[in-house]
Amino acid sequence: MRKWLTGVIGLILLTPGCEKDDICDEFARTTPRLIISFYDFENANNLRTVNALEIIGDGAEAPLGVFSGVNRIELPLRTTDDVTRYRFRLNSNNEAADNIDFIEFNYARQDVYISRACGYKTLFRLADVGGVVLTDATPSDALWIKSFTLNTLTIDNEDETHLSIYF
């Protein structure tokens, strides 16, 4: 009996403490995406719908997506680099009428621990000067993005618009 009791106590002491399942909660806030809302250039208070907007990451062949009938999009920023550049191609259904603008995001990254199951998330802080740079692929066709407003330098959630684009 004494050997049995000693064995049970030994087993209890050697067994690691109970851990919560290693499943990341679906509501855990992970690395936030950049939120862009589109507005009418003529009336800056009115949201404007984009149609046939193709977005391609720098160096990628395939588009991240083609957006139609939306006035808000979510774009990921690179978590392994301090720069992300996208090609915004308007009217991609008609190559003759395509207009391509580039937007470059320059930022600092901060990795934040969430939990053992979820790991880390990356938060971003856009540079005070040059955090968002807009260029035209073909200057002769002019920018289709007329202007933009950077609403916040910190990208730490997906609850608000980070960048407003006027066209």
Could you characterize what this model shows?
The protein has one domain (31-166). β5 (83-90) and β6 (99-115) form a beta hairpin. The longest helix is centred in the N-terminal third of the chain and has 13 residues, at 2-14. It is 8% helix and 40% strand. It has one helix at residues 2-14, and strands at 34-39, 53-57, 65-67, 72-75, 83-90, 99-115, 119-126, 132-136, 147-150, 154-155, 163-166. The strands form 2 sheets. Strands 2, 3, 5, 6, 7, 8 and 10 form a 7-stranded antiparallel beta sheet that branches. A 4-stranded mixed beta sheet has the order 4-1-11-9, with no helix packed on it. It is mostly beta strands and 167 residues long.
Average predicted local confidence, pLDDT: 88
The biggest sheet amounts to: 7 strands, antiparallel
What is the total tally of β strands? 11
Separate helix tally: 1
Our Rg estimate from Cα atoms comes to 24 Å
Outline the low-pLDDT stretches.
Answer: 13-19
Q: What characteristic shape results from the CA principal axes?
A: globular
* Distance separating the two termini: 83 Å
- Helical residues, percent: under 10%
Work out the count of structural domains. Answer: 1
The portion of residues forming beta strands comes to: 35-45%
Q: What structural class do you assign from the helix and strand content?
A: mainly beta
SSE order: HEEEEEEEEEEE
